[in-house]
Amino acid sequence: MKTFPFIYNQPKDFLNSLQWKDWADFLLGEINPLFSFTETKAKVIDIREETADSRTFVLRTNRNWKGIQAGQHFPVSVEIAGRKVTRFYSLSGLSKEKRTLQITVKKQAGGLVSHYLNERTQVGDILGLGAAQGDFVLPKTLPNSILFLAGGSGITPVHSLLQDLKERNFQGKAKLLYFSRHDKDIILQDSLDLLEKENSWLEIKHVLTDIKSEEYDFGFLSKKMLEDFAPNWKESLVYLCGPAPLQNSAKQLLAGAEIKSELFLLPNQRVSAFSSNGPKEVSLLLSHKTVQIKGEKSILEELEEIGIFAPSGCRMGICHTCVCKKKSGAVSHMVKEEASGEGEENIQICVSRAVENLELEL
Ligand code: FES
User: pTM higher than 0.85 for the full model?
Assistant: First the structure.
């Protein structure tokens, strides 16, 4: 215990107070911004334009990186206006070169980090990384038949899984049904074309949902589309990654199939099942504050809009960084489209919308 500032009863207290790793990190960072004892960082070594609003970033990590499996996601941090902001991104590709990986980021409406990465980030910039997580990965023993369903940015982990299949010399059959709004929105198209050309086990069908083009199919996922493209879907392992509407219709159509899914929740995404009926009062019990929110978007977003920044990570219901205790009031889950009870429970505020006045332990 300290008895006086700068005087310590125990040598270990003195050593702890030095926070030598922070100092060493600071000094190492002066030599090379990628060096660190404690932090995982990556340097942007290449940037590729995918579409008008998405880019692929090739990253070289420092030695603290513990590795990742195809299909997993990880937190990426950038400093914007002096504030460290973190979002989760899926691995979109692994390189054979050690500690080299790639993410593909599409600008999302209102997406702070996705805009920053697309508009400001340059080759040579340093990003903060966190540990990889997620079980949207291939099994150790590969099945004979795999069906991938992807929508929009949901192609990113699927692309890394296809690369993984190639690396593992896949002997079965894989089909990918990929939904984009229009042909200019197809992310990773060159790489997908090449994968299909080089691997006879792979068949890709692009489907556009908003604007027709002669080259591609048009429409949303339907029973007919599924039966025509993948009549053996019942015998396939299904990987599903995309926004909630695609997930919902795919899960209904594919009832009974073995499905691995990953959700991409778009900012401002609302659910129709629980329409807002006016502003809600939210009492933040730990901050001794009561604020009004609209009850239209996620609680996390609505708090941020009024300048209250709660802990968050993936912002799509995966990482659980945003979990807080609700003491009273009801919320609706924006993905499952279910209303909660009114009692005490832990909620993820990034995917929960206020249905009633709330008391939160925040
Ligand atoms: S921020 Fe990741 S679950 Fe809410």
Answer: no
